[in-house]
Amino acid sequence: MNENLVRHLIAAVTVAVLVAVGPACTRQGDEASGVAAARVSPTVELFPTASGSVLPTPGPSPSTARAPRELPARFRGTVSRIPKALAAAMRGTTWHPGCLVPLGDLRLLTLRYWGFDGRVHEGPMVINASVADDVVSAFRQIFRAHFPIKKIRLARRYRPGHDDPTDRSDFSAGFNCRPAVTARGPLSNWSQHAYGLAIDINPIQNPYVTSDGFIRNYHARRYRDRSQRLRGMIHPGDAVVRAFESIGWHWAGDWSTDKDYMHFSLSGN
Q1: Whose CA is closest to 56, among 196, 175, 149, 156?
Q2: What is the pLDDT of residue 120?
Q3: Are 256 and 240 in contact (CB under 8 A)?
Q4: Among candidates 6, 78, 89, which has minimal Cα distance to 44?
Q5: CA angle 194, 133, 242 (to 5 degrees)
Q6: What is the pLDDT of residue 232?
Q7: Structural domain spans, the chain
Q8: Do the Cβ atoms of 1 and 23 come closer than 8 Å?
Q9: CB 47 within 8 A of CB 85
Q10: Nearest one of 223, 157, 212, 226 to 182, comparing CA atoms
Q11: What is the pLDDT of residue 33?
């Protein structure tokens, strides 16, 4: 298994019993970028809990704290089967019996990306196995373009009626067994995220905007004016849109009425 993936799994498991994870990586992409070395974040928030929250990665004690490791600024994207520890954590949170896609048809990606701090970070994303390699290709292009992503992290449990308009969460995620959600609330149909065929990028900077201009999240409202060129915003024809177009995905920022600027999906829904 990829060294970084092992590190993430160890950091996220908080139960007393250690889970032994064997070699799981099936494919890996790694490329030089010609950019000076960058610091890589050594820990990542990974596993959702049964309550719907996400377990924060335990930080090292003061006596054992180390500076982030220096690594060449190059893209790396890995694809692996869902480890047992992660599958157990997903049950009852972002996956449950009755979901459209069995856990065996999902894959765990580990992706490097440029953060808002100008450094290279690494985060996990769950996606449908059928598009895993394509998604790695898209993020490779996004990395090459130095497009900044606030954080890549696994989705958390969606609880209808508990949307907090003051929530500052700003993470990019993929699979989540939930209904489609608009700025006005959930719909009756499944989201493309429930199929593992959709990804949201920087939701604060790229909010869901209704046809009459409503944005639910208070912190996202400053990004209503899409003529702005602020860090992390997605615009028509930019590197992020082109990256997903290259794998046959569609951007919900092109919808004719409501606009879901964070949302990319295979179907366009």
Answers
A1: 156
A2: 94
A3: no
A4: 6
A5: 85
A6: 98
A7: 3-55+69-265
A8: yes
A9: yes
A10: 212
A11: 43
Query: Residue type at 236?
Result: P
User: 3-state class of 77 per DSSP?
Assistant: strand
The pair of structure tokens assigned to 70 is 């220096």
Whether 196 and 125 have beta carbons less than 8 Å apart is answered as no
What is the mean pLDDT of each successive set of 10 residues along the chain, which is 269 residues long? 48 38 51 46 43 39 52 88 97 96 98 95 97 98 98 94 91 97 95 98 98 97 97 98 98 97 97
C-alpha dihedral (57, 23, 177, 59), degrees to nearest 10: 0
Sign of the dihedral through C-alpha 164, 121, 89, 59: negative
Run of H or E residues at 112: strand 106-114
Nearest residue to 196 (alpha-carbon basis) of 245, 132, 133: 132
Structure tokens at 52: 């719907």
d(CA 149, CA 175): 18
The dihedrals phi and psi of 103, each to the nearest 5 degrees, come to -55, -30
Biggest CA-to-CA distance, the chain: 56
